[in-house]
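Let's practice the habit of predicting before peeking. Look at the sequence and jot down your guess about where helices and strands might fall. Then scroll down.
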Amino acid sequence: MVLHFADYKTILSNQNGMNLYRGCTHGCIYCDSRSVCYQMNHDFEDIEVKRDAPLILESQLRRKRKPCMIGTGAMCDSYISLENELQITRQCLLLIEKYGFGLAIQTKSARILRDIDILKRINAKTKCVVQVTLTTYDEDLCRKIEPNVSSTLERFQVLEAMREAKIPTVVWISPILPFINDTEENLCGLLDYCIKAKVRGILCFGFGVTLREGNREHFYAKLDEQFPSLKQKYIQQFGNAYICNSPNNNQLMDIFQSKCQRQGILYKTNDIFTYLRKFESKERQIPLF
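Done guessing? Here is the structure:
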């Protein structure tokens, strides 16, 4: 891994998304962020750090007319291993709290527990939603497809910790890899974790994986290492398709939707994104009269 710094003029996107790093060391074999379309001009495992990110973020937050939800973690996990040393994510969370903004943060890492003190304070003022990605109930399989990230059990423990802290959670069940973890047993194991942790919602865009240039070549190389002969099955089944849905998609979707409905868990994509984007102030309003 090589660390390098780059200059940026902004940290927040037009949609109030925040990515503090470019690249990742989690090693997930399916990662879409490797795709050529994202125009990353360095090796994916070499991390680009946005120089002076907290200073730039503070400037942007101060200029906003009113607070809103800040989203982070979609393109690059905020809790890659370097965060232990650099603490850029923590500095930015402190600013989000200071200026009264809400937070929707996504991760696969139990390192987020380090910052639970700030997350609780944000949630006391506005709304903080912790989003955790779960893909594979089987821990041995998890180590094959997500080798350098917190185990599924550790991520479930993050959800439990957030429940105890009264911080709402959303789980992303994505991706589900055809012929690898696209089983009823796997799905039910993940859903049981979600039910026990009392998650607010579960995002699922279908049971499959997306593959495009850059991402596809890496994924196929890892299939050859971890699942010999499976690459050919993918080529025969999907060709160069972007969306590669499991043959079990309909069956798994029926199970997913029915379990969520019974448990009162949000599962419709629009409903969850509306919830994630809605800023809510919990501070007591002083009456005018």
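How did you do? The chain has eleven helices and eleven strands.
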